[in-house]
Design brief:
It is globular, with a radius of gyration of 14 Å. By secondary structure, the protein is mainly alpha-helical. The longest helix is centred in the last third of the chain and has 24 residues. The chain contains four helices and no strands. The chain has a single domain, classed as Helix Hairpins (Orthogonal Bundle), CATH 1.10.287.
């Protein structure tokens, strides 16, 4: 369940030293959510991981709302690139 955060950051960053922009954080959270979803399909009784998944989904939702409010063009591009339904 190891996620290569540096590769994700390289793909979604705004400039060459960007590590914490909203786009990078949302992309990393999306990959973590996908990994946790697969884990929970195999381990249905893992309630602590389910709680962690819900926290990550809420965090991503808040970041997406912020990005939409601040830069709607970037928001639309990111949604399309990640394949999210919003």
């Amino acid at each position: 369940m190891k996620i290569d955060k540096s590769a994700i950051a390289n793909e979604y960053r705004r400039h060459d030293r960007d590590t914490g922009s909203s786009e990078v954080q949302i992309a990393i959270l999306t990959k973590e959510i996908e990994a946790l979803t697969e884990h929970l399909k195999a381990n249905k009784k893992d309630h602590s991981s389910r709680y962690g998944l819900l926290r990550k989904v809420q965090n991503r939702r808040n970041l997406l709302n912020y990005l939409k409010r601040e830069n709607e063009q970037s928001y639309r591009e990111l949604i399309k690139k990640l394949g999210l339904r919003r």
